Amino acid sequence: MAQPGNSGAGxxxxxxxxxxxxxYLERARExxxxxxxxxxxxxxxxPPIQRKPLKxxxxxxxxxxxxxxxQVVTPIAPLNQQxxxxxxxxxxxxxxxxxxxxxxxxxxxxRALGMSMRVERASLQQVQDRFEVxxxxxxxxxxxxxxLDERILKQQKEEEERKRQRRExxxxxxxxxxxxxxxxxxxxxxxxxxxxxxxxxxxxx
Length: 205
What we know:
The structure is a single chain. By secondary structure, the chain is mostly helical. The protein has a domain of 81 residues. It has 5 helices and 4 strands. The strands form 2 sheets. Strands 1-4 form a two-stranded parallel sheet. Strands 2-3 form a two-stranded antiparallel ribbon. The protein is elongated.
């Protein structure tokens, strides 16, 4: 603002700037339209992710290999050397076995493996094939009465053989003990003869 009494030219800033609302509304609409178009084009380019259905594990979960072992744990140790169960897929450590099982059966872990939580629907042919496999397995392991009798006889013979071997071992030990006793008696007799007395006999008759 110019000083009063000064005739010099100053800046007139007493007015308020006015915005054209229609112009800015138009700009906002244009920007929203462009964002919507870019989103729709990205969706059209990226196909939806198709995850495989759930399948059973082809490995056994190791929960007991580190039981009873002592390990020094430091804060700077890598994750796979810290206390607990390490998941190499999700790169995390779980402190106990129950939570570890919950984790590897959970949605986050299965998605990291590329699987959805849906189970594949089996066809009629797959079910029939599975029944056939189970039937063959059952008939393959079942025993007839003749097989059962043979197995019982075989076990009885094996038990009798074990008992006979036990008896022979006992007899052998007894024989060895008798031989050792006679050797010791002979050695005592020789020692007493060398020392000059015949034995420890009493004078009583």
